[in-house]
Amino acid sequence: MRPITALSAVIAVVLCTMPIVAKAQDASEKEIERYREMISDPMSNPGFLAVDRGEQLWAEKRGTKNVSLESCDLGLGAGKLEGAFAQLPRYFKDADRVMDLEQRLLWCMQNLQGLDTKDVVARRFSGPGKPSDMEDLVAFIANKSSGMKIEPQLSHPKEQEMAAVGEELFHRRGGVMDFSCSTCHGAEGKRIRLQALPYLAGPGKDAQVTMASWPTYRVSQSALRTFQHRLWDCYRQQRWPAPEYGSDGITALTLYLNKIAAGGELAVPSIKR
């Protein structure tokens, strides 16, 4: 009877402490939400400085052809920006590829402007004293879709294929820790320390809120960050090799996540911890 008595005591202790743990988590969630509300004022969001810089870069004549990006077609016609980000990634006939915003911008720089993008790619993510043209341009263009719904483009066979590849990548395990995206985001209610993790293995509010909030200004990094950076950081945390900037793998993951986030209302650039 003694082992049973001891086991009963342990179970009783666990049951008694569960409400305390749940209460602590609830309190933490409320504090995190209160913090998010405090920093969510658009008028105090430094990410809009990137929007302004991006607007200047969009109109700046550069490259061997000395032209601006204003004739770049992001899917809705040359130079048309309103709503374009909400429908990316998408298939582009002139490139015969499915592209996300960053891939399309690099394509336009190379083909319309005649710009050597080596330096642009080298500064793909900003740092102290190192501005990023791509982060600024993405912030400017994405902001033109703010308030609009995410509309994943899936009518072309290559778009359907890209979304299917993205879903496969989301669940693919690898790296020294045998992790995948779904390790953290494949079930509801998961968390890391105090941070709740969004469920991204299927359609729902979590996916909509997540995808509708990038690009964002990261207070902890004092920089605007794009979704390319978010995925790069996810792979770094999984101890996978760093994905190539503007790679088809990143585009595939983005299209898959936009597929399950369809209908989410964009509010960008947002501001996060």
Descriptive terms for the model:
mainly alpha; globular; 273 residues; 3-stranded mixed beta sheet; metal-binding; SoxA
Structure description:
With 273 residues, this protein is mostly helical. Helices cover 48% and strands 7% of the residues. It has ten helices and seven strands. The strands form three sheets. A three-stranded mixed sheet has the order 6-5-7. The protein has a two-stranded antiparallel ribbon with strand order 1-2. The protein has a two-stranded antiparallel sheet with strand order 3-4. A hairpin with a 4-residue loop joins strand 5 and strand 6. Helix 2 packs across helix 5 and helix 6 crosses helix 10. Its main location: periplasm. Its EC number is 2.8.5.2. Belongs to the SoxA family.
Summarize the structure.
With 273 residues, the protein is mainly alpha-helical. The chain is 48% helix and 7% strand. The model has no long low-confidence stretch (mean pLDDT 90).
Main sheet: which strands, in order across?
A: 6-5-7
Portion of residues in beta strands equals 5-15%
Summed up, the helix count is 10
Percent helix range: 40-55%
Overall spatial form = globular
**How many DSSP-defined strands?**
7
Classification by helices and strands: mainly alpha
Order of helices and strands: HHEEHHHHHEEHEEHHE
Provide mean pLDDT, rounded.
Answer: 90
Largest sheet: 3 strands, mixed
Termini Cα gap? 53 Å
Rg of Cα set: 21 Å
Task: Give the low-pLDDT segments.
Answer: none
